[in-house]
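Posting for a labmate who doesn't have an account.
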Amino acid sequence: MPVLVAESLRYQKVREEIIGWIADEKFGPEGRLPPERVLAEQFKMNRRTVRRALADLVAEGTLYKQPRAGCFVRPVRHSAVRRVRAERQGLVISVPLSRTFDEFLYEPAGIAREYLRGVADAGRENGATVEFQFVPPQRHVAYMLDQVEQDPPHGIILYDAGNPQLRQVTKRVIERKIPYVAFQPEKSLSWERIRKLGLNYVTTDQQTGLQQATAHLIGLGHQRIAYWEQNETASTRQAGFRQAMKEAGLEVDESLIEHQFDFNTSCVMALRSLIERGVSALATSSDYIAMKVLREAESAGIEIPGQLSVTGFDNNPMSGETSPPLTTVAVDRYETGRQMALALVEQHRNPGNDMKYQYKMPVRLVVRQSTNTKNNSVLMDHFACGTGS
């Protein structure tokens, strides 16, 4: 056999073996390959052959190189790896994430990891391979469009499907009949629009959650209740606040609703203003807002819950460690992730079925020490002023 032919066959063997290892996820969460020297020893081939195989995989985009660090597996979307996985396991679920791997790995609260752990576990239990693809935000839309057009997955999870930047992706996924599930589409679409489009979705019952939190405050005797959200995409949660106030026969003071909470600006003056206006409770659309309120209340000279009861939303893992521990609404992120994967498995097993896969996952109120009765709050103020016996 000519030397060049033999060299080509060896190089192809190394290349295909590495693709198989990628398909089997043998390179761990970081996706880092062993050094050339180690690979050469494992394959019992010279480093030139290994180097050629790696260069080929880098050129086609399966791997990427980092100076002084070696070769790493790119977020998998390439047909060579997908083909091997499909042959071995059948269904391949794609989860494109608009963040880098480091942003995901070091996210303080680990919220995203809980959702994705549920997706991964349910996928594996049903013989599916789940691909988490970490894409910088500036490349997210282009990446997803390229994936949908050039190498469509067997199933895809779309986050914020109604976002103007992602609507084209959602439209093409539906047109190409790719099994999909939209996660929390109400962040950027009205429920009327979601129903009109007939989207497959999995979300949490956010309206009921905020309704429960507000009803809890009302049940404690609070009537002047403010509501803060970061932006108007939280309108589903705000609807829960309004519904609870309406059912209790309480009027919503529009001047007490903050639609654009700014994390970069102190809220000390705003908190003092609430107290001056007779507000005794504050419902928020997220634990992050509520935790900032708790931190800054001390600077504002406001006792929580003595002068102001505060609720959050999401049951962030840190919400139980605040001072005082935060009353919030718990979302079962793991089970929500599982339901997303199961919706895709069901679509994959029943191609051509026009059934819609639409799930609202239940939530529950978690009562902690950041809320208290209105009467007790007044009593605490009474003693704080030194007028009690």
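Reply:
Got it, the structure tokens are right above this. The chain has three domains: 3-73, 79-199+335-362, 206-327+367-384.
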